[in-house]
Design brief:
The structure is a single chain. This protein is mostly helical. It has 13 helices and six strands. A two-stranded antiparallel ribbon has the order 1-2. The chain has a two-stranded antiparallel sheet with strand order 3-4. Helix 10 crosses helix 11.
């Protein structure tokens, strides 16, 4: 069994797409919008964003069919590339490249940290500019937000989107790969790294599609989006809590996770409170969405210095998530090699 350097081929096949995607994120932040797969998926969703005679039925069909279609296209592309594309040292290089491109499109951290940092910097000297920049992070009207409120909104969004936009795609990639290996073992079939890779990519694409549907349709004012919102709640249940754990590890503060447990119930969402509350406690600040919730990790809203600390914490937590995913995949490749 060959590979690259000291890693066997199955390990390279599963790890290279993840690490390449992270490297691309750090280098470029996002693919160009005109070819961004998530933007293209959004164009597919847009025609369903209207009133329907039977919105519940249409909403269920959309929530089921569109994420499965995204998973099928992305996972199928990787499978075909692995089957018919070139191999080097037992590594399906085209499949690795396709998988890396999908993961790069699905998981985003640098842009989140960059925009959050921009809002924090502008909140000190140019609140009007900060109010405009924060629109990229939050859905609320920022017109009446004070500089402290702007920093609070930015930190909340950074913590929440760490879960939705980074930890969830990574976690579902790992879950899909693991599920493929487990199903193969249960059926008495030899596990393959290429099969695990295709399943992981399909799962990551499915999760990203579910989250995109929720962000576009999952509002109380849109009955067609109710099924998408409920599905997103289920799909993000574990990633939100995993993101909170990553924040606590990055802060070297297990206590912050314990203290966040009661605060996490404050937001109406069953998931977003976990990473937001953990970040609030870890940094020691009060995060508040007026009229909705208060996360009293401290007595005062974030100062500029505290908000910058929160941005760094989110970035570090992303690193913890990558390390955890890498370790799990390394262990999984041992199972693949053994089988």
């Amino acid at each position: 069994m060959t590979g690259a350097g000291f890693l066997p081929a199955p390990a390279v096949t599963l790890l290279a797409p993840l690490l390449l995607a992270v490297a691309l994120d750090l280098a470029f932040a996002e693919p160009p919008r005109r070819i961004h797969p998530v933007a293209l998926f959004g164009r597919v969703v847009a025609p369903f964003d209207r009133e329907w005679a039977r919105p519940g039925l249409v909403g269920v069909a959309v929530a089921v069919a569109l994420p499965l279609a995204a998973a099928g296209v992305c996972g199928g592309s990787v499978a075909l590339a692995a089957e018919y594309g070139p191999q080097t040292g037992g590594v399906p290089v085209l499949a690795v490249a396709v998988a890396a491109a999908v993961c790069f499109s699905a998981a985003s951290l640098r842009m989140l940290c960059d925009v959050t940092g921009e809002v924090v910097a502008e909140s000190e000297g140019d609140p009007d500019a900060a109010r405009e920049s924060v629109r990229a992070l939050v859905g609320r009207d920022p017109a009446a937000l004070s500089p402290g409120d702007l920093r609070s909104a930015a930190v909340e969004s950074a913590a929440e989107n760490l879960a939705d936009g980074f930890v969830a795609p990574l976690g579902w990639f790992v879950a899909g790969a693991t599920g493929a290996v487990a199903l193969g073992a249960a059926g008495g079939l030899p596990a393959t790294a290429a099969g695990a890779l295709a399943a992981g990519v399909a799962a990551a694409a499915w999760a990203k599609a579910v989250n995109t549907l929720d962000s576009m349709l999952g509002y109380r004012s849109k009955p067609v989006g109710r099924a998408s919102a409920r599905l997103d709640d289920a799909a993000m249940f574990l990633p939100a809590r995993a993101a909170a754990c990553c924040l606590a590890v990055a802060a070297r503060s297990p206590e912050s996770l314990r203290r966040a447990r009661s605060l996490a119930r404050e937001p109406a969402s069953p998931n977003s409170g976990w990473p937001m509350a953990t970040a609030a406690v870890a940094v020691g600040v009060r995060l508040e969405k007026p009229g909705a919730y208060v996360l009293a990790g401290g007595s005062e809203p974030p100062t500029p210095a505290a908000a910058r600390d929160a941005v760094r914490l989110v970035g570090a937590a992303g690193g913890v998530a990558v390390a955890a995913a890498t370790g799990w995949l390394l262990a999984l490749t041992g199972v693949v090699a053994w089988s």
